[in-house]
Amino acid sequence: MPNQKSGNSKMPQSLTAPRYTEIATFMRTPIITDPSDYDLAIVGIPYDGAVTNRPGARHGPRELRNSSSLMRTIHHVTKVNPYELCRIGDGGDVRFTRIYEIEPSLEEITQHISHFHNAGVVPLSAGGDHSITLPIMRAIATNGPIGLIHIDAHTDTWDEFMGSKYMHGTPFRRAVEENLLDPKRTIQIGIRGAQTSSEGWDYSEKIGMRMMFIEEFNQLGVEAVIREARQIVGDRPTYISFDIDSLDPVYAPGTGTPEIGGLTTIQAQGLLRGLRGLDLIGADVVEVSPPFDPSGNTALVGATIMFEILCLLAETISKKG
Ligand code: MN
Ligand code: MN
What we know:
CATH class: Alpha Beta
Structural class: alpha/beta
Shape: globular
Number of domains: 1
Number of strands: 8
CATH superfamily: Ureohydrolase domain
Strand content: 15-25%
Strand order of the largest sheet: 2-1-3-8-7-4-5-6
Bound molecules: manganese (II) ion
Helix content: 25-40%
Number of helices: 10
CATH topology: Arginase, Chain A
Order of helices and strands: EHHEHEHEHEHEHHEHEH
Radius of gyration: 18 Å
């Protein structure tokens, strides 16, 4: 059932059912049949055909849906209830028809996200590997280059890998080249881990992105990082891309390219809560890889980060009326 447009509450009835019941949609929201009934779509992008090493993120959306049934409705710090602010539904999974070909697969992601964007619905996507962010940006950066708050152990600004320009280490370089992303309005937070070449770091620096290694993050502290991130993206349209490997593998081991010495969950939550009121036009949580997550904790962490971001997006949507 679509959410009710009128009345005091936009809360879907499915949110009051026992949390172990019903089909596991994202956050127990209704499945979207008509985008015009909704303001925000949580979309699954089960694709990991563009990883460098350990695959498995194609199983991310299903496990994130399952773990997201543990989420409730009122944020315990901000007191935001996203379901009171806007109409939220599950936008289904991208239906891939050519999974062995990267570029056509990315095109199918763009089509699925455009379906919502063109109806004025803001997408919160669950990956999938990080290659999915480029086609999302192609769908939503329709009024010029956007700003980006990118939380990740890696810059994902390589030029290519094994002859492919489109893989999970290159989306933000392609996005700059395609004029979808403004590098001067981009901050990359949590960068770390040895590399075989410095080309990603070099590109981010050369093109004018604010690249913040984890050591600097810890030195500055969360509040100072929030101030700088807000200043960099300003009050113009901005996207949040959250790679689960930004977190320390203690919290999120279930990912393809883990790097120790990462963010704590508390730091990540604090950082996200500092981003209220920005002009957010979409977000994603990527690289949750259930085959490497036997305890299921990475999926729980991913679903909780999605809830944090959902609250931010819902507030922005409600202020735009
Ligand atoms: Mn990444
Ligand atoms: Mn990463």
